């Protein structure tokens, strides 16, 4: 197809869109047949060496979780549906299904073609992929972990509800991107109210299967209505905002493929706005460390609110899990609560944002050694301490009979876990570019394990928290477990300072002043 055909105004919009895509598909950096074949080869190896043995082991052994009766399943599925749809809406606000390559979007925006023509097909294809992948993953997880598929009638009911849920979540993902914030709040409220009504009706249903069938019908009807409205809303999408989202997504993909996932996530941190004058006192001086941190947190209210919620929920779950130390489910709650505190400690304050840059850049104003850490870490430490105290106190008050026998040990373990989470967060925030030595092969009898080092470096904070909780749960003494957590936190802080090279510079400058 020639350029004149592309520019001909009388040509059909569908043909013009198809011609642009074909021309873009023949670009110089497109994937080759050999590259696609190698990807299929890796997938086949993974399936042969990992998936097939796991499926074989599941088929010859009993399930680890017994589902039992589905009488009370409908309210839990309603809660799961609301959580999944809300998460899909939030994901759509940052990275939705109509995010395309910036150059391709620029070409389409330069024409008179309606956005429905070139974005509708992309949206439908991606929604189909996401819905099918989510449903397949849920089925595989249910087969491997539960005995749901041992009962045909229960499996059919849950599978029908899963189809409706996957479709609803996919369309909620699109709705979160193409509609403004007000419409997303209305949809979230409507989904919550519908879930409450359906859950209440299913609890009073006399038949155990009626609730799930009713839920499956509601999910299918809601998905049909929402899907039609979301696809029709594509023609009203803000193209300027979509161009910014596409450019940011392209840059994030580049960071992710080059091994700096933390830089990709930093691109989606909200930009502070407002309250600039609140950082300065009436006499022109900057406010203290704690007021500065609080004001900077309030400049990103959404992120700060999510961080505060994670701190309260995480510390409550952490206290409950640490109080039942030695029990298997309690250990999982302990790890989950520690991870929530780890995430909340980074989201509750924006002073982490410039800490790494200040430590890596040359000192311009000659601040005394340690002043940067005191100024930037004062607010996160205080906020996490207050959140842990409030959440842990709520857990103790609600379940006093569970904690009254060993309240002192629980408090010691929670303190150590919070300190370790703060150290892990500091380690994560001080991360720079990917060290090249991590790409070197590690040859063992089990194969090349360099990928494990790469994954551990990418998610070092999560690894520290999970390993630390496992070691703390294995120790019999609460004081010893807390001492181990404090040592791990100190090691994380020292490793983070070594990553920036600031520890050596600070120590050298300190020794030079002594001399």
Automatic annotation (TrEMBL):
Coiled-coil regions, chain positions: none
Keyword Transmembrane in annotation: yes
Transmembrane segments: 35-53, 73-95, 127-146, 158-176, 185-205, 211-231, 304-323, 329-349, 377-398, 410-427, 439-456, 462-495
Keywords assigned by UniProt, alphabetized: Membrane, Transmembrane, Transmembrane helix
Protein name: ABC transporter permease
Organism: Streptomyces poriferorum
